[in-house]
Amino acid sequence: DYKIRSKEHNNYEIECKKCITSCAKMTNSKCFFDTACNLLLLVWLTIAVRANDTPLSHSSASLTFEKRNNGAHDSNDETSPITIPRRVSSTTKKTCALLGAERLAPYKILRNGDYFREVSYMSHTTQSVLNQDPIVWVGSDGRWTSISAVSLATGDIIRTYRLDIPSGVKGADWESISLGPCSSDANDPETCLYIGDIGNNSAGDCLSRPCDRGRDFVIIYKLKEPQLDVPYNDEALQVATLEVNYKHKDMPVDRNNCEALFVDWTAGSGRGDIYMVTKHGSDGIANTRIVKLAVGDHENLTGGSVTSHSVVPVGTPSLWKSGWSGADMSLDGGLILLRSGSYVYFFERDEGESVAQVLEGSPCSFEHETDRSGNNDKQFEAVTMMGPKKFLEASECRDSGMCDVAVYAYELVFEESPPVTAPPVSPAPSTSNEEWVDITVDDFESGWGSFESNGKDSFWCSYDSSNSDCRNDKYKDYAHSGVAAVRIQDTGMKSSFSHMNTHDVTSCHELRIQFSFCAYEIEENEEFYVDYYDGVQWGIVGTWVSGGAGSNDGFYHYFRTEQCYKESVSLRPPEFVFPSNAMIRFGAGANRNNDAIY
Predict the structure, then answer these.
(1) From residue 386, how far is each of 68, 267, 542 by CA, in Å?
(2) What is the pLDDT of residues 32-79, one digit of tens each?
(3) pTM for the whole structure
(4) Which residue of 170, 211, 424, 533 could cross-link 206, Cys pair, CB 3.0 to 4.6 Å?
(5) Which of 496, 398, 395 has the alpha carbon at shortest distance from 452?
(6) CA–CA dist 519, 534 (Å, integer)
């Protein structure tokens, strides 16, 4: 009672209810033939097919077993039903909304000594700094104690942060990085970096347990994502160190190689779970697993801590690949990327599906083949999403030499939902009586109201304020009404204020932010911005620039200092998501304390 399907490199898999112990080995409720059995199976298949005078197809074999829905089985069957992880051949693809990808103008990362000699990991940051230029966290494989943020617009390092790796922790092979939520709390806007010191090349040859090849455990470093608009004094950042092993009883081998790591962004019980997809040589490809480290194992860890954890196997990748070298998940959790060799595969995730269910299922029919024709584009490993509909991939540089690293960007193309033809119905009720409903209204005459300060350069001002920055000759003109206002000055997170509580806007079909502001000693090209939190991340929805040059385009607005304005920003789907935990934030982008927005 077999199902036999061909795989790449003449490897074959047999799913069975009764294992042929004389030839195959039973692993996680599956029969896998070793190399000698592969040859025997090839001979047997050839005889069976030739007897039927039917050509042998590489993509599938002719022997199948009947699928029994809902796990039902024949009561006369001598064997009990078993759960078989579903695998698909590379020719079995899922019909997705994702249709393809269009190549955009490339970026490059300038050579910086030894920093980027063999780029293996990259993660796009959601931080909005440097004129909205795309920024990535990026680095090379090997043993490191720092992480760099690079502007793709210039190719330069914005800043390199030293990490306070605890003494006694012996790292070996940094291979992955992922941006993800710090905790399971959907209302927690903080993001963390997860750095995977998870390479373990020798362990990739492990075929059974126990195995003594390679490291006994690998390491994941977790730290709060550094804020790039906050000054850095070169002090080493504290990290939580997670020593991770594969000794769970359901793992086929107790040591693994791995280069693909990502974190689940989805709101719900899985938010913050860490996933890895292991990597094996062709002889041990059957041991490849999707493993998980639950968010509960790390969300309460503090910097400087060192803890030990066993990952839990949750599935087997559907694609029969031995070289998973990169992975990422979109911020809405609806798309997972996996890289193997020259290809990036895409897995669409429906609401309610677990990560394991998605990766055990079929990928989208579109698969991206990397163009490796460039002089330094011999090998690619790093891949990351950039926003909801773009992804990036970076070259390692040829033969590990130092070069300007090529970073290629692509816009994903999705099928638009077809119009729905509905049967005739009675006319819908008129919407002419719809009204705007106030969510928060604040004039700041009695204090902060619905908002709170995020730092020392954002404060409440009134005539009797004790803050000296509130007292200037023109202050009396800057209150919108009455005698009070909020002042933001300088730049960075400390120069912002935001909603104190989240707000449920799921029933709305449009949001509007209305406000008044006055500028004081703002120099040309200095700015302030309005941020919107959509339940997953913060994003700028409007920027106001001093100088009066240019024309307002709905995003950039221009103003002159020593004047006051009334402004409005409208948000509508599908461009913006309306969650159950929305917030807004105002922030300054000036260069000194005397430059202020009221």
Answers:
(1) 42, 19, 20
(2) 444 444 444 443 333 333 333 333 333 333 222 333 333 333 333 333
(3) 0.60
(4) 211
(5) 496
(6) 28
